[in-house]
Design brief:
The structure holds 2 protein chains of 2 kinds. By secondary structure, chain A is an alpha/beta fold. Chain A contains 6 helices and 14 strands.
Chain lengths: 231, 215
């Protein structure tokens, strides 16, 4: 059975209301643009999304927020989005803030079959409230739980037909972790090659983690803060 | 010299040749511009890069290459890319020599608050809570006194904490403090600033270092 899908609508068609979805990307860098658009078109709602950020008002996960499809957001930083603020303050949107490194490790752990781990991050802060603690060598650590998604949406640079993935520059970010933690992982890429054309040494995410591969075209790749110097 | 530049120019002295350094978003990012050419460091960006280079030449920007502040950047020779879990493994695992972060409040015990103000929209802590517990050395840079004239160097932080007892050194526009088992220690004052002025503008009690430097 081929992992390569031709239609984003078909690739997301079994994502139901109330699903938990892990989404790769950092800010608007390395986000699965096409799968997010397909989810908006599908209209599924009450989604729980785990992703480092929640896009901007009109880009990335922000378009699902604007369409009121997200019930709960697990993220480390959500400061770029006014719709987010509005829905959060009105109580429409539930938010779980997780420190960035903790969030990354929670997703990695989920994908690696580890239900929880201890970290010093957040001890003595509001995010420690209600969490179990344990001392190791006289220092206090918090118990944090792994996250598993019904689905994961990831963006890579290249894939082969077996779902092996290669990322480009800092567009890697949360994508390899999201790929591990989805029960069904949907990867969209800029180029699909035959199995064997990617060198085994260059593969970042082994295809075992990836169930569906799609070729995306016309990526917007928005830049949030363009900073340049004169030549 | 404006106060930001005073702070940034003092903060750059914390960076030594051969270090791996994480600079926070905002004022700490400006420290990069002041690093002397003969000091070789690798700057870490928590979204997955060790070896941040200067901003790209106009027209050569790449949407797939950004820093943690979402700014377009370049890489230096010897840089490496990695995923977010690996990035925080190097942070939490004590492999980053120095983190320079901004602050809203610092307490006499070295507690730091820099991520939320109750009543205002919560934006999130990003990677700050991981950095303060993980980096080998944590230096906070901030204005000594708030816009409302209140000391930001407190007996106890009033704002929600980012980390408990995590600050090694605090650099403000007026002074430099270290946090030790004996308490908060004044180690330097900025040019033209007296110890009396620092005392007046600091809510937290402090002792004066035997090696105190009056700049």
């Amino acid at each position: 059975m081929s992992k390569v899908y031709n239609s984003f609508a078909k690739a997301v068609s079994d994502i139901r209301d109330g699903s938990t979805i892990i989404v790769g990307g950092f800010g608007l860098c390395g986000i699965p643009e096409k799968s997010i658009e397909a989810l908006r078109e599908s209209g599924v709602k009450d989604l729980t999304i785990a992703s480092n950020n929640c896009g901007t008002d009109d880009q990335g996960l922000g378009i699902l927020l604007a369409n009121k499809q997200i019930k709960k957001m697990i993220a480390s930083y959500v400061g770029e989005n006014k719709i987010f603020e509005k829905q959060f303050l009105s109580g429409e949107l539930e938010v779980e803030l997780s420190p960035q490194g903790t969030l990354a490790e929670r997703i990695r752990s989920g994908g690696a079959g580890i239900p929880g781990f201890y970290t010093a991050t957040g001890v003595g802060t509001p995010i420690a409230e209600g969490k179990e603690t344990k001392e190791f060598n006289g220092k206090t650590y918090l118990l944090e739980e792994g996250i598993v998604g019904d689905f994961a949406l990831v963006k890579a640079w290249k894939a082969d037909t077996l779902g092996n993935l290669v990322y480009r520059k800092t567009a890697r970010n949360f994508n390899p972790l999201a790929a591990m933690a989805g029960k069904i992982t949907i990867a969209e890429v800029e180029e699909i090659v035959e199995a064997g054309e990617l060198k085994p040494e260059e593969i970042d995410t082994p295809g075992v983690y990836v169930q569906r591969v799609l070729l995306g075209t016309d990526y917007a790749k928005p830049i949030e803060r363009l900073t340049v110097r004169k030549a | 010299m404006d106060t930001r530049l005073t702070i940034v120019k003092r903060a750059v002295k914390e960076i030594q040749d051969g270090m791996n350094v994480n600079l926070g978003i905002g004022m700490p990012t400006l420290v990069a511009n002041e690093i002397p050419a003969d000091v070789n460091v690798l700057l870490q960006s928590e979204n997955g890069l060790l070896g941040i280079g200067p901003y790209p030449v106009e027209g050569l920007e790449d949407a797939d290459l950004i820093n943690a502040g979402k700014e377009t950047i370049t890489t230096v020779p010897g840089s490496s890319f990695f995923d977010s879990a690996e990035s925080f493994a190097m942070i939490r695992g004590g492999h980053i020599d120095l983190a320079i972060l901004g602050g809203m409040e610092v307490s006499e015990k070295g507690d730091l608050a820099n991520w939320m103000i109750p009543g205002k929209m919560v934006k999130g802590m990003g990677g700050a809570m991981d950095l303060v517990v993980g980096a080998k050395r944590v230096v906070v840079i901030m204005d000594h006194v708030s816009k409302h004239g209140e000391s930001k160097v407190k007996k106890t932080c009033e704002l929600p904490l980012t980390g408990l007892g995590v600050v090694d050194r605090l650099i403000t526009d007026l002074a430099v403090f270290d946090f030790t088992d004996e308490g908060m220690v004044l180690v330097e004052t900025s040019p033209g600033v007296t110890v009396e002025e620092v005392k007046e503008k600091t809510e937290a009690p402090f002792i004066i270092s035997p090696d105190f430097i009056q700049s």
